[in-house]
User: What shape does this take?
Amino acid sequence: MLANLYRKMGLHDREMQTYQDWMNAMPGDPTAHYMMARAYERAGQDAMAMQELAAFERMSAGDPSAYPQIADLYRRLGDPANQGRVLETWASQVPGSPDARLALAQYYMQTGNYGAAAAEYQAATQILPNNASAHIWLARAYQRTGDLASAQAELATALALQPQDMSIRLQLADLYRRTGDPYGAIQVYQEVVATNPDSPEGRRAAQAIRRIENQLRRASQPSA
Assistant: This one.
């Protein structure tokens, strides 16, 4: 595309003129407005980018494929309110889309709305029950809300789906430790060490075991 060539050559004025010519020739095509919005955003002309993005959003109304593009550009323009609005619209229009649910959940995590994030990740795990990453993210959201028991259950599910993933085992062991189950934590840490003792995960697990054992020994010593 000619506009991309101009962009790579650093000829931003010509790039934008190409998009303007596109809009003039095909006034009903929303894509030209999106490309112009991106060009303005890269040039630091945020007000103009917002104007073109609003036009693209208006012309793309009802097209689910446009929502992730719109939301991402609002994010890059530093407008989290509109980013969230677009993601919520996307998820409401296609509630069975795991991409929409996960994108909205990630937005809620980034903005500190952990309860809403957990609800969206939970919806995603119902759509994709065998997706370990969705269960891991749901566990993280539960941790942020303080529901450590539910977080443990989600990590256990993720581990059952990906039993060779040592990072999941470490997260599960850390949760056992945080919930006051040092022996459960030691058991899971030992599984990590037994699998690959020389890996970063294995070394971290071994250190964690030593710390817990030292704590248990101190706790068992009679006070003076």
